[in-house]
Amino acid sequence: MGLTLSEKLRKKCVVCAQLIEMCNIISIELGCSLSDSGKIIERLKGETALKSLGFLQSFDFELIDIKTPLDAQDNERLNLLFSELGKTDCDTMLNLTEAFRLNMCESKKRYDEYYKTHSRLYIALGFLSGIGVSLVLM
């Protein structure tokens, strides 16, 4: 149980880091090639560095309801970013992407700090629970 909780915390850190990388790729695509939104999504789907972002594989512009292991507030920001993708000019889209990237950097710091302080605690509690159950069953 403790390992599962610790793994969930680690997953948040990984997803957040990959969202930051995704923003970097979107910015490059928008800044260099002025790709349309469909081409950007296809580029993101093929990127191996974004393998934890499973929502990219089944992404649909008609129904944007992205769920990740992150908090609801971060998921809402992600949905907003993708809902605006392709609907504004390039400069505005670059600004939105950069704002989202900065939000994710702050969230990543928060998730990393929480992971450092709580992951060991979860593992220890899981271990102690196992010992407690073993003692009760004896």
What this model shows, in words?
There is one protein chain. By secondary structure, the chain is mainly alpha-helical. Helix content is 74%, strand content 0%. It has four helices and no strands. It has helices at residues 2-33, 37-45, 72-84, 90-137.
Summarize the structure.
The protein contains four helices and no strands. With 138 residues, it is mostly helical. The mean pLDDT is 84.
Which helices and strands appear, and what pairs or packs with what?
Elements: H1 2-33, H2 37-45, H3 72-84, H4 90-137
Key traits:
single chain, mainly alpha, 4 helices
Please identify the structural class as seen in this structure: mainly alpha
State the low-pLDDT regions, or none.
none
From N to C, what is the helix and strand string? HHHH
Q: Estimate the global geometry from the Cα principal axes.
A: elongated
Number of H- or I-type helical stretches = 4
Oligomer: single chain
Total number of beta strands = 0
